[in-house]
TrEMBL record:
Assigned keywords, A-Z: Hydrolase, Signal
Protein name per Swiss-Prot or TrEMBL: Esterase SGNH hydrolase-type
CDD domains: fatty_acyltransferase_like
Signal sequence annotation: 1-20
Molecular-function annotations in GO: hydrolase activity, acting on ester bonds
Listed Pfam families: Lipase_GDSL
UniProt-listed InterPro entries: GDSL, GDSL_Est/Lipase, SGNH_hydro_sf
Organism annotation: Penicillium fimorum
UniProt cross-references to SUPFAM superfamilies, sorted A to Z: SGNH hydrolase
Length: 341
């Protein structure tokens, strides 16, 4: 039986599924005792690694899926202007406080270790949308790669690593909805199929003994700089809503199926939309476009040289499709507050 209370669907047997309200607390999840976060997704979540594909991954690519434990455990998070798609630390780095400082960080040296297998440009599966590059690792392949190489390396070679002290974080669908926005399909049915495939991969993670899951729903992609300039945004708000509804339905079904799991869905859409609606609360003055010189090496101090009236940290959008590191920091703070019991 499902009982609705304070935006949390609580299953009487003990499984919890938090959907909607980003300020609600997921019941019975202990963030303070979590030792590691294992992340999957796309450019909103990827971090650069010393053994990764430059500008795309922490480790490997489609042509280099295999790695041994020594390679993974010696890998380091790179933090510089080009080490994420946000020009600075992103939400998983801020959430774990792992890799936030410039230079190199071994996940093993973080109080909450960050093992990030997200790949910039990833979609859920090539069954529905083509790869952005021939080296791109889709979400399905990220999890298959993790099952074959990452999980055994961590489980058997990393002292103290335990599935019951690990949170799985997944933020995916941004590229899928952008890439398919003009398809001639029944979109609610199409998004259901996408999320069916997503949760088939989540079942793979469950079979490996992971029991804590954090899902992030889609941001307001209808309000990117390009879409704000259009009379007919693509994707539009309705499409974003349909995808988010499909994700919520699947997360609820997964939680109901797996009584011992802790399944949490953070409503990133609501939180980010609120930031766009009232940006000055968060030190943001520009929500409609981005600084054209965002990728210049001296942009942090010479932004005016590129025609930008304010620093990147006061923009919501870092470029045409990504949020600034400042927005990721605020979002991570909201997620952490929500996760704390």
């Amino acid at each position: 039986m499902l009982l609705l209370a304070t935006s949390i669907l609580a299953i009487a047997s003990g499984t919890t599924f938090a959907r909607a309200g980003p300020l609600s607390r997921p019941a019975k999840f202990d963030w303070s005792s979590t030792k590691a976060l294992v992340a999957f997704g796309d450019s909103y979540t990827y971090v650069q690694g010393t053994h990764g594909h430059q500008n795309f991954s922490f480790i490997g690519d489609q042509f280099n899926l295999a790695y041994d434990a020594e390679t993974l455990l010696s890998n380091k998070i790179v933090q510089n202007q080009t080490a994420t798609a946000e020009g600075g630390p992103n939400w998983v780095e801020y959430l774990t406080n792992c890799g936030v400082h410039k230079g190199l960080t071994s996940p093993q040296h973080c109080k909450k270790q960050l093992w990030d297998f997200a790949f910039a440009g990833a979609d859920i599966s090539t069954e529905y949308t083509p790869l952005h590059h021939n080296f791109t690792v889709s979400l399905v392949d990220q999890i298959n790669q993790f099952k074959q190489y990452g999980h055994p390396a961590l489980q058997h070679n990393l002292p103290g690593f335990k599935q019951d002290k690990t949170l799985i974080a997944l933020w995916i669908g941004i590229n899928d909805i952008n890439d398919s926005a003009k398809y001639a399909v029944d979109f609610p049915a199409f998004y259901k199929n996408l999320t069916d495939t997503l949760f088939t991969s989540v079942e793979t993670l469950y079979s490996m003994g992971y029991r804590s899951y954090l899902f992030m729903n889609l941001p307001p992609l209808d309000r990117t700089p390009g879409n704000q300039a259009k009379s007919n945004p693509s994707p539009n708000a309705t499409q974003v809503g349909w995808y988010n509804a499909a994700l919520a339905d699947h997360a609820a079904a997964f939680a109901e199926k797996h009584k011992g799991a802790q399944v949490m869905l953070f409503d990133a859409h609501t939180r980010l939309a609120a930031m766009l609606d009232e940006p000055r609360k968060y030190g943001i003055v520009n929500t409609t476009n981005f600084c054209a010189g965002y990728d210049q090496p001296d942009i942090a101090v010479e932004y005016e040289k590129y025609g930008c009236p304010t620093s990147l940290g006061r923009y919501f959008w870092f470029n045409s499709g990504h949020m600034t590191s400042h927005v990721h920091e605020v979002l991570a703070w909201e997620v952490e507050r929500w996760l704390q019991v």
